[in-house]
Specification:
alpha+beta
Length: about 575
């Protein structure tokens, strides 16, 4: 749920903060006041494309900050946690986005800088934006197919995922078979080069990190005499030479401790120093023991040094052809072995690949059949739901049908046989989906853009949006003037339907219709002030006393009309039983 949003320097808005609530929030205001800046702010907040032209004239940046409350089990919360976002003590999450006038953009989530793409990922689980541009987009058949799949939910999504996997395996196997058949000679030559390299590496049998270990050993063997002499001399300095004069570190430490023994009883600080000298003595003894062991192990071995040089030369000879290090050489060998399997052009390998292609194709065809059936079932439910919505939008005789039909075969496109018919196939299936409308009884079904007048199309698209939105799992829904071209009784029904949606979702609506605004649980108004130089807008939340005034302005177009206010209060009273907060 969105709890709060603050917008600075965006369009005509200088600085505005708004607290949201569950249910239906409407945003109203005069034309040009900046109502759509609220929607633009939400788009920016959730990773939408940033247009530097939206930055307020004369400013250097726009800034939007929002406070979200996410369900504990939501995908959005999981992604935020993975990104290192910190939640506030009350469990809310702060999201911010800045956009500079030179086009640069930055995003922060829970106090952590994040890529814009992460905000877009959150939006997929949190926000659904429905606007006039979305209505235009939904007139395209490809978008209608994707929208129907979202409406159908899990029953279609699960089958679509299985189909897409089978389709990818089919096309990959077909491509591999085609490559091996058409380029057999070139592939055989590549395979021979790889086999030679693998044979050389197998003969050497290098171990991970062996080249580095040999380098270290070669240096040590080359300087064995120096290393042994240095270790013995250091050992003698620490513990003394049996044939020497007895001057050594261990002996001197003993002299120092004995010098303190008689005086330490008179000062605790000397007792502590004596303990430290004792600890130093232990460390010296340990170091001396290790030096003695080291000097005994180190010895000159010319034969071993020669073998090390020979092994290094052999490894470097192969490395020069395939890699820089032994570890990279082993990686090359692994890749070469896998590539050899792909280059096998034997009759047996080709038969196995052909069988794999045919099996994947059969699975894709069978799953495509299931997918088409599931889409037709979802299409029937969707068609009935939209037609019911239209009845309440003053189109009682209208009918919408989601037409799920076989995709025609086109040149160069994969083909699957589904239900005995050849169809064009893609990763999304073998169906084309188109929404058809019969605007009144007896009218033929036609594509939406040809079957409705302008006003009818607005209502049809609104009905489609409402039905899609009702099946959408997101918590926040935003409708940006999707009620354009609607009025009268139909406008009242639009408000009622949005109020119904708000019982299960947080809904924000930018509207010019008082009939819709009457259903608001929270009513925000954008106020515009202007002088000769600049236009400013601010957001404010109306209380119950102010709401009739704003609705009256929307009804009459002027302030102060008592008749309009009575009408406004009547609208509010009629809407009250249907509101999400009632």
């Amino acid at each position: 749920m969105l709890e709060e949003i603050r917008i600075q320097g965006l369009g005509v808005i200088v600085d505005a903060t708004v607290e949201f609530a569950p249910g239906l929030t409407v945003v109203t205001g005069e034309t040009g006041a900046g109502k759509t800046m609220v929607v633009t702010g939400l788009q920016l907040l959730f990773g939408g494309r940033g247009d530097s032209g939206r930055v307020r004239a004369g400013g250097d940046r726009a800034w939007v900050e929002g406070r979200l409350r996410l369900d504990e089990s939501s995908i959005a919360r999981l992604r935020a946690v993975e990104a290192g976002a910190e939640f506030d003590d009350d469990g809310s999450l702060l999201v911010s986005r800045s956009l500079s006038s030179d086009g640069r953009s930055r995003a922060h989530l829970g106090g952590r800088a994040v890529p814009l793409g992460l905000l877009a990922e959150l939006a997929a689980d949190v926000l659904a934006l429905h606007g006039q541009s979305d209505q235009v987009r939904l007139l395209r058949p490809a978008e209608q197919r994707a929208a129907l799949d979202r409406y159908a939910g899990a029953p279609v999504a699960e089958i679509a995922e299985r189909y897409a996997e089978a389709f990818r395996r089919w096309r990959a196997a077909a491509a591999a078979l085609g490559e091996r058949t058409a380029n057999a000679r070139e592939l055989a030559q590549e395979a021979e080069v790889l086999r030679q390299g693998l044979a050389q590496i197998e003969a050497l049998d290098p171990k991970p990190g062996e080249d580095l270990a040999l380098d270290v050993e070669a240096v040590r063997l080359s300087h064995a005499d120096l290393l042994q002499h240095s270790a013995r001399h250091a050992h003698e300095v620490l513990v003394g030479d049996p044939a020497g004069d007895g001057t050594d570190v261990s002996g001197l430490l003993g002299v120092a401790r004995r010098a303190l023994a008689g005086a330490a009883v008179h000062d605790e600080r000397l007792v502590e120093l004596d303990k430290r000298l004792a600890e130093i003595g232990y460390l010296v003894a340990d170091a001396a023991t290790e030096l003695a062991s080291y000097s005994e192990r180190i010895e000159s071995d010319p034969a071993r040094l020669e073998r090390v040089h020979e092994r290094r030369a052999a490894l470097q000879g192969v490395q020069r052809r395939y890699a820089d290090t032994v570890d990279e050489l082993l990686v090359w060998a692994d890749r070469a072995a896998r590539r050899l399997l792909e280059l096998d052009t034997s009759d047996e390998a080709l038969r196995a690949l052909s069988d794999e292609r045919d099996d994947a194709q059969a699975q894709a065809a069978a799953t495509a059949t299931q997918l088409s059936a599931a889409r037709r079932t979802a299409g029937q439910r969707f068609s009935a739901a939209v037609s019911r919505e239209l009845a309440g939008l003053a189109m009682p005789q209208a009918a919408v049908q989601a037409d799920v039909r076989p995709r025609p075969v086109t040149a160069g496109q994969p083909v699957l046989t589904v239900d005995g018919t050849d169809r064009g196939a893609g990763t999304d299936g073998t169906d084309d989906v188109e929404l058809l409308l019969a605007a009144h009884s007896g009218a033929p079904l036609q594509p939406l853009q040809r079957g409705a007048s302008g006003g009818e199309l607005s209502r049809v698209m609104l009905a489609v949006e409402v039905v899609f939105a009702a099946a959408d799992p997101v918590s926040l829904m935003v409708f940006d003037e999707v009620d354009a071209g609607v009025g009268g009784r139909a406008a009242v029904e639009v408000g009622r339907r949005l109020a119904q949606l708000a019982r299960d979702h947080q809904v924000v609506v930018v509207t010019h219709l008082p009939q819709v605004a009457a259903y608001a649980d929270v009513h925000l108004v954008v106020d515009k002030t202007a002088d000769a130089a600049v236009t400013n807008s601010a957001l404010r939340r109306l209380d119950e006393a102010d709401r009739p005034v704003e609705l009256a302005r929307m009804l009459a177009g002027v302030d102060g009309s008592e008749h309009a206010r009575r009408h406004a209060r009547e609208l509010i009273d009629l809407a009250r039983p249907h509101k999400a907060s009632s």
